[in-house]
What we know:
Blueprint: H1 2-34, H2 38-52, H3 54-60, H4 62-65, H5 70-75, H6 80-106, H7 109-133, H8 136-153, H9 175-198
Helix pairs in contact: 1-2, 1-3, 1-6, 2-6, 6-7, 6-9, 7-8, 7-9
Amino acid sequence: MVKQEVIQWRFVWKTQRPLLLIPIMLWLVVILAGSSSQQLAKDLAVFLLYPSLAFPVVGLMSSIGSAYQKELWITLPVSPWRAGAVRPLLMSLLYAGLFTSVLHRYYTPAQVAGGCISVLMYMLLIALITTLFKNSAFGLCGGLIFLFFGLFTGGSGQGPLYLMQWYRQVTGLPSDVYLLEQGVFCLVALFGTVQLIRFRERFHLLKD
Length: 208
């Protein structure tokens, strides 16, 4: 199992390296910007670094979301729990750590915790959408639309799933409720992704 995982992660690194490196390069930009202007660094973290965290997930789920590998993906022997839960969760935790390493410089501990859970939900949502449609473009666009719609409308219609409560707080529900609900959604997204992979040969939303 460990050997297979190492091989899989090496494959992802070799084939999807640009997508994995985009957030890291933007993280460095935010760090450098913070040396001259804290407000600039905060804006870059929210409007540039945060959205870019979609790219590593798209890279990780590329074998699922590729239009050219659908038939191969359906027939491959794949562990649903490893492909649908373990790998997305590990990658989400890694990049959430990267993002919160910036947040802790400028925000309160409560905001940092909210930002961390928010990033986890954002990345796992993209993994779920990608698996649901077996299409990377749908996963990427769906995640970005959900993020920016909430950001520019104050979470209108999103309730406790509003991703930017830690940054642009709206009244109505305590922040603890957002943390709890988004944490539960992360678990639901992981379970849903696992089940979609398990029954991938039976379930097709997009027909060729």
